[in-house]
What we know:
This protein is of the alpha/beta class.
Amino acid sequence: LQDKLNTAFRTLKGKDRISDINVAATTKEVRRALVDADVNFKVAKDITDRIKDKAIDRKILISVEPGQMFVKIVQEELTELMGGKAESINIKGDPAVVLIAGLQGSGKTTFSGKLASMLKKQGRSVLLTACDVYRPAAIEQLKVLGEQIGVEVYAEPDNKNAVDIATNAMAYARKMGKKIVIVDTAGRLAVDEVMMQEVADIKAAVKPTEILFVVDSMTGQDAVNTAKTFNERLNFDGVVLTKLDGDARGGAALSIRQVVEKPIKFISTGEKMEALDAFYPDRMASRILGMGDVVSLVERAQQAFDEDEAKRINAKMRQNKFDFDDFLGQLQQIKKMGNVKDLIGMIPGMGSAMKDLDIDNDSFKPIEAIIQSMTKAERETPELIDGSRKKRIANGSGTSIQQVNNLIKQFDEMRRMMKKMNTMQAPAAMKKALR
Length: 435
Ligand code: GDP
Ligand code: MG
């Protein structure tokens, strides 16, 4: 997906403004990329149509590449489509019942353990219930997990009736004062009628406060169809997307949300009990786009950058002509934007170039003094600054030769970074940061 999006955004490179023409070309590429990431074609088309309108409407800030601006629009749209905000589960009830459904191997039992562990850590009394009566190892698997996390497991190894077991577990939970019952069910390799009927019967018997559908994110388009079938039968409340630690493509999250109109509530990112996260649509959008903090950088830049100044500097950066005067100008802009350390960390390349500095707004003072002690020629052509000039600059700015050396070194590194970035698209640069 990343490569596809890079191709898409490359279309915009070098253009100062998003025009109809390049938006059309770019959205087409984005659509293709989304489809490749397992997003349903119709969903991908809807998304890109909307993005197209927004991109054309939006005035593009010059200080950041229009490509990045476009990324931001796509990111916002994806976030919105995935529900905007994180959603919780309903665990009110006496006891509350969380029913876990999904295909075999999707990660139901593992997730049941994780959810139990999470709720236990919140101080709730939880009972896990083993309703997979088809595989002898299934009960054992849940028991092992229960022991590991210190949560009791209700099981009836000799009983083959899952509905009975679930009903008995409820009675047991009431007797023992457990507040939440998590019912782990069986799954088949493909959706089949017997399994569907059984889960539906369990639902009718225990009246869950929350039904979660667990789906393996690696299964791509199939995940969407499975979700649809389960939803028609169970009308579930939320989705758990598992195995996102692999090279799963986030596209399933988008399609499922669009097709069944139910929120994704958790993502599972590993076999360990801790590997469970609430689902944050914005983070998933970033994952799909693979671009890390570029989005927030664009946002803040939008708020504070002086457009003309930014335009001028951007042009110089593109031509690899960034000099000390520009550097000074940037420092002053950055100071206006607030927390310097955060901001610098967000700029690809700058973070590492400036990591040796203990940065706050005051630490700019010697830097500013050094640059101000340079002659115009020295600022424009830093290569001129030899040993005797360094000494003069250090004296003039009340700093040491070493400080002058450091600054020049950092400046050189920054310029090298910029040069690199000019031949590389920002999303690719951020891909590394995202890992
Ligand atoms: P169930 O048949 O739906 O109960 O699935 P299980 O919970 O038994 O999981 C099937 C396999 O997937 C097991 O080997 C799990 O360890 C593994 N698994 C479950 N969730 C994840 C996950 O988020 N990431 C990875 N890498 N493996 C997972
Ligand atoms: Mg299982």
